[in-house]
Amino acid sequence: MSGLTDESTNLDTDSARRASGNSSPTDAWISFKRWLLKTSRNPYVTFTSLVQPIIFFVLMAEVLGAIAGGTLAQSLSSDVSYVTYLTPAIIIQSALAAAAVSGIGLVDDMETGMFDKTLISPMNRGAMFFGKVLSEIVRITAQTGIILVLGYLLLYLKSGASPSQYHQTGLFGILGIFAVTIIFGGVFMAYSNIVALVTRDREATVMIANLLTFPMLFISSAFLPLEVLPGWIQTVAVVNPITYGVDGIRALMLGQDVMTVLDVTAFAGLWNTLIPAIVVLLVFNILLDSTAVGLLKRASKSEVQ
């Protein structure tokens, strides 16, 4: 009789252990696969995050490129093409578009009841959010590669420039561009998911995300050097993460220090831009990611109660 009791106890213990869920990496992998598949089946997300920035790239290069040459010559040098100058802005805009719609998938889950089912599951909340972020990173990485190639094709068709005239820092610079873009994307992925968790409404998530993110592109160094813009824009640009994302990538494209919102001289050359840009973006990531995970945990407790 005692043996049966011990066996029953062991079975209960094993069941409890299994019910506690998978390991955090496994939870993140499951979440990653689910969100990657879900996003790939949404044509709206594909158009918004990829096709729209490409159209914007061509139009901006043609319209602003015709009048920005003199400004670039004063700020940088006469041999910097506006296509090269604009490429970092379009990379950041593409990452921004992908990140800003990240919360829509979360709202869709709320409306279908999938979100509530996930909350009562034993999945680790941090791993669940991390897996979702990883799926967005895959798309942002693909978009960045496409835009880099498109930028060079535009420059080649305009002037027949060589790859070294388009990008000054070789393979290190290419890898650095992807890294900065991913770190930047993480900021607005977290922001979009925070909006989704607070509003729990698809239309509100889209409106709030677009209302804030799109104007922020123009209150930064994205399209023109800050010194030619109004003083209030130069002031706001200091706290605008888009400024640091664009400047970080632009420094890697041009191989020089291009930051004007912070006066950093502790390093050399492009590092005076790249290191502060990465640090600022990481601070934004830490603050917003911790807020998003906290909201997920709070939602889980509410669901259990």
Description:
The chain has helices at residues 2-19, 24-40, 43-63, 69-75, 82-100, 102-112, 114-119, 125-159, 163-166, 170-199, 202-218, 231-237, 241-254, 271-304. Helix 5 packs parallel to helix 10. The two termini are 39 Å apart. The model is unreliable at 1-20 (pLDDT under 50). It is elongated, with a radius of gyration of 23 Å. The chain has 305 residues and is mostly helical. It has 14 helices and no strands.
- Rg, Å, rounded: 23 Å
Number of strands: 0
Low-pLDDT parts are: 1-20
Determine the mean pLDDT: 79
Strand content: under 5%
Spell out the blueprint of helices and strands.
Blueprint (H helix, E strand, L loop, with lengths): L1 H18 L4 H17 L2 H21 L5 H7 L6 H19 L1 H11 L1 H6 L5 H35 L3 H4 L3 H30 L2 H17 L12 H7 L3 H14 L16 H34 L1
